[in-house]
Amino acid sequence: MQTITTDIIEATIEHLPGCIVSFRVKAKAPLIASAEKEAGKQIAKHTSIPGFRKGKAPFNIIQTKFPEALKEETQKVLADEAFKACQKEARIPLLGQNTKISYNLDSFSKEMCEMTFKFETEPSVPQFDPHSLGFTPAEKETVSDSDVDETVKRIRLFYAKWESVTDRPAQMGDYVVIDIEDLDTNPPSKPFQGSRFEISSTSMAEWMREIIIGMNVSESKEGKSHADSTETEEVKKEYTEKNVRITLQRIEVPNLPIIDDELAKKVGVATKDEMLSRLKSNMEKQAVVREQNTNRDRLADILLEKVQFDIPTSLLEKEMHYRMNQRFQDRVFQARWKNLSKEEQDKQQEALKLESEKAIRMYYICRRIAQENKITLSRDEMYPKIDNTLDAMFADPATLNPQEHTKEQEAMMFSRLMLSKAQDFLISKILSGQ
Question: pTM here?
Answer without folding.
Answer: 0.77
